[in-house]
Amino acid sequence: MMKTILLLAVAVCVSSTPVTTSVKPLPDKTLLGELVEELIAAMKDFPKETEEKLIFLKDLQMNGLDHKEREVLFCQVEQELKTKVSGLFGARFDHFRTDKKLMRNLNMYNKHHVKTCKLTDEKQDKIPLHDFLKNLLASVRIAYSQLK
Amino acid sequence: MFSTFKCQIFLTLICIALCYEPTKEDLKCFNDYETEMKCSLSSERLQSCSGHKLNITHPVSNMFEKYTCIFERNHHSDNCECNITVEGFVATEIFNTTLLEGSNVLLYKTFMTSDFIKPKSPVLSVQKTENGNFNVTWDDQYEKHGLVAGNFFEGLRINLTYGIKGGHKNISKTVPNTVRSYEIVAKNLLPNTNYILTATMSTDYNDHSIPSDQSATVEFTTFLPITETGPPLQREPLPADRPSSMQENLVSRVLR
User: Fold this and answer.
1) What is the pTM (predicted TM-score) of this model?
2) Is residue B134 domain-shared with residue B215, that is, in the same domain?
3) Which residues of A68-106 are buried (b: 16+ CB within 10 A; e: fewer)?
4) Touching check for A33 and chain B: CB below 8 Å?
5) Which residue ranges are recorded for the region named Disordered (chain B) (predicted)?
């Protein structure tokens, strides 16, 4: 009798769990490919002009990285953009809003690659936003080309 | 006590026969990777769409976008359908759906964006070329420089299918969306014959697993060949029910 009740209880519990579809492996190529496009579009709003030099971001090491180091970099990039650019007033910063595709693609890439984001020292050297984006674009392109 | 037990069995059997308990296969959702997500609920035992809705949560950059999708009957398909507008899609983002009848939860289902992309149906056009062939072009219906990435465009494929109108054999050709056109060589077709052409599109974001709905049909007509020497071939009189415009030139109509 007890066994029957236990089996029924298990059956009820199992039947009430959410029905989910299986999630396939992450398509990095898609995320990085779209990130390249979004960065190119965003950079058009930030030509190398004096005015935009008011926005400075950490000069993160973006060259000569291996795959793991690049994963860490992209996570740091997301944090840096979120804290210093995403909330800025002005239409040209719309690309960096957290609900726009640039940041969403970056966020999804990081969610599946980095468990904890290693934060960098705030005293680190700073560079203008234009240069930051240019370096980032180069790094994303390398990551993308290695997947093709 | 035994009669109560029999009553419970009887009620259970009645419910199995009449109650609507959908499975996850009954709920299908598709997105066009631009702004629209459409869901449909189909079941022979679904009496009415009324009261059925889908609560959808969509995690976006550590926030949650929430939508309510209320089902209504589609008289063409006889399914319950609903749709929501999303501000752009990202390939690996998740949509968590909860199917409700009133406040009663019927099922949960999760969709990953790339897995359920169903591209928009293309709009076809056919023009006769100078050399007598048929140039097929199409509009993929996506707004360029909008919410859809170039990568997505480049990964679209169009599957063209054409054959004799009323016939049973069709020819299928698949080409990348980026080529923008496809030429059907007239010498490979029967002369003085009506052909129909349709197409679907698919994306490599999900290995082309979900084709779009079929495009509207486009019709084109081949003509009788003219000999190089001597007078033109005598044409057979056309049957009374054929349109008078079917003469030397191409007839191209969109049938809807």
Assistant:
1) 0.80
2) yes
3) eebbbbbbbbbbbbbebbbeeeeeebebbbbebbbbbbb
4) yes
5) 227-256
